Amino acid sequence: MEFRLYPHPTDSICTPFVYVRKQNAYSRYFFVSSSINLISITNQVNSSCITVVGGDEKTIIGKRRPNREMILDYLLHYECASDNFSDYVKNTCVIPTFPLSKEEAFVKTIIRQIINAKQAKRMFSNFVKKFGYKKGGLYSFPSLGGLERVSIYDFKKFGLGFKAERMWLGIKMLEAIGEDDFIQINGIGSWSKNILEVEIHKDYSFYPFWDKSGEKIKKNYGIDLIKIGRKSKKLAGDLYVYAASYMEFIK
Length: 251
Prior knowledge:
Blueprint: E1 2-6, E2 18-19, E3 25-32, E4 35-43, E5 50-53, H1 57-61, H2 68-76, H3 83-91, E6 92-96, H4 102-114, H5 117-131, E7 133-135, E8 138-140, H6 144-148, H7 152-160, H8 164-174, H9 190-201, H10 212-221, H11 225-231, H12 233-250
Parallel strand pairs: 1-6
Antiparallel strand pairs: 2-3, 3-4, 4-5, 7-8
Helix pairs in contact: 4-5, 4-8, 4-9, 7-8, 11-12
């Protein structure tokens, strides 16, 4: 059984987890209560069992993991366009990871508005390295207080362009609003609202299956996530996680 995180980290990407020099072990720092704390995910070789150290498992990987049996049952009764994708599901345990704070979820979503997923992942990683905290070669996403000290000019200089003001104003509002009030922030439309719900609720059943990723999954594998979601959002969300992870895997 192969173990993969989604999104899957590389040596150059510092979030959501940084690869450390140990097989199938991933670690990062999390800023909380005025200090940065090390958390990590490890798994047993050839096993789907995982261990979360230094943090709440539900905070890192969500309340529920994708149901492989449900996905395999669906694929068994559906002529999938790719047998390789079915084999991937059979042989791979995909563990989604999520932001560890609402400010991290917000920043990640604003950056994803700007460019495609691959570039956004790199930019988000650079954001953490630029404005976050480093310890022992690993990085922590900056605290809300640290983000509040960053100017619009610094955000523009970083490469956020016309989204710099949106980022700056949104960060100023984060302390006062609840996790369900992101819609109050200028520039949070239907797509961004869905993405934030995925990250905050730690559940891909909230994903906007009509976006470019959903279209690509339908084109590549004939899997219509919108149609599936009308009957079961959990199945649609789990299929999305595995299909998106598989597309990363084959690149």
